[in-house]
Design the sequence.
């Protein structure tokens, strides 16, 4: 074996195993009130401009009713009211974000979209302990540059409490 081959072989052996790329969570960010929230991008069926909806009697105030999306009747939930914020008139930025998890589907009224966000798993802090685990819809708090984004659990949002 020539000297060059020996050096090459040593270099190959001394190389550290490659570090796995850190997992990144892909989310869609949106504003409700003054806060920024996000949900996993794969849980979103679609984002649409507001449609007419029909009130359903006997539901909590945050359930606005149901709307028809291409033949499917979907419940419509106002996140402002669900988060105990005052109701506001819809603006041209208002959107319905249709979220699907397993067979559950619902539309959520949001004030406006922000952007698609990619956050490293290591930049997501767990839910603060002050929030009870039973009705917790928060997955964690994501840190992106100088912003804090509350990441919501899809299954928590879609859980029927009525």
Sequence:
């Amino acid at each position: 074996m020539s000297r060059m081959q020996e050096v090459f072989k040593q270099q190959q052996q001394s190389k550290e195993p490659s570090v796995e790329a850190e997992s990144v969570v892909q989310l869609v960010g949106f504003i409700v009130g003054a806060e920024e929230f996000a949900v996993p991008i794969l849980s979103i069926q679609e984002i649409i401009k507001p449609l007419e909806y029909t009130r359903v009697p006997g539901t909590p105030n945050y359930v606005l009713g149901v709307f028809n999306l291409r033949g499917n009747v979907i419940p419509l939930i106002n996140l402002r009211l669900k988060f105990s914020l005052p109701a506001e008139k819809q603006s041209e930025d208002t959107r319905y974000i249709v979220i699907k998890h397993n067979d559950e589907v619902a539309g959520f009224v949001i004030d406006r979209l922000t952007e698609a966000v990619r956050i490293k798993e290591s930049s997501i802090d767990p839910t603060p302990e002050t929030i009870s685990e039973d009705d917790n819809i928060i997955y964690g708090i994501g840190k992106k540059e100088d912003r804090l984004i509350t990441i919501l659990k899809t299954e928590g949002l879609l859980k029927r409490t009525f």
User: Anything to note?
Assistant: The CA atoms of residues 1 and 7 lie 10 Å apart. Residues 15-19 have pLDDT under 50 and may be disordered.
